[in-house]
Amino acid sequence: MGQYFDNEKLKSELNIFKTRILDREYSFYTDNGVFSKNKLDFGTRTLLESIDINEIHGKVLDVGCGYGVIDIILSKVTNASFEGIDVNLRALHLASRNAKLNNVSNVKFYESNVYKNVKSKYNFIITNPPIRAGKSVVYDIVMNARFHLEENGILYIVIRKEQGAKSMLRDLQNYYKTEVINKNKGFFVIKCILH
């Protein structure tokens, strides 16, 4: 839980890593107390490589944005506008720095505990949910996305099979038309269309 809520007390140890994805190079500042501080997380990579980037448009919300990977990468390959939210203030500070580092201007990052400070509706919500924050937080993110999606809006989720992908998939079907668009080394990428 520490990485989500108490990280301001952790000693800062700024780091930078480079990665290549979707035919582009990126650099990201990271630090202690943020998720996947040494490399692009495999689940996030699988999610990004599974999304049809040609369909991404309008307004996109990244819930649990961390240091900004999803927003920054997708903003480079689409014309959508992005908002990233997180409870981790250190991660949000890094996300803003990473947007500048990668010459991205169509992204806004701000603090929000799940949807508490979210005021808009979106064409897409994308999340690699913080599993360690617990099932109730994860379910709040994925089940309540429907209240923040435009009509026919789409939610993309990545979750590991052993972290409850199958039961989540079953529960999501109460609110969305769901499809598993990719399975990769135990990670499921789920596309949920609001109906």
Overview of the molecule:
The protein has one domain: Vaccinia Virus protein VP39 (Rossmann fold). The protein is α/β, with parallel strands linked by helices and 195 residues long. It is built from 6 helices and 9 strands, in the order H-E-E-H-E-H-E-H-E-E-H-E-H-E-E.
Overall structural class, as computed from helix and strand content, comes to alpha/beta
Strand content: 25-35%
Number of strands: 9
Q: Considering DSSP H and I runs of 4 or more, what fraction of the residues is helical? A: 25-40%
Indicate the CATH topology: Rossmann fold
Q: Could you spell the SSE succession in H and E letters?
A: HEEHEHEHEEHEHEE
Question: What is the name of the CATH architecture?
Answer: 3-Layer(aba) Sandwich
Major β-sheet profile: 7 strands, mixed
> What ranges have pLDDT less than 50 throughout 5 or more consecutive residues?
1-5
Please work out how many helical segments DSSP would assign.
Answer: 6
User: What kind of oligomer do you see?
Assistant: single chain
CATH class: Alpha Beta
Shape: globular
Output the radius of gyration.
15 Å
Spatial gap, N to C terminus: 34 Å
CATH superfamily: Vaccinia Virus protein VP39
Largest beta sheet: what is the strand line-up? 5-4-3-6-7-9-8
Query: Any idea how many domains?
Result: 1
Q: What does the average pLDDT come to?
A: 92
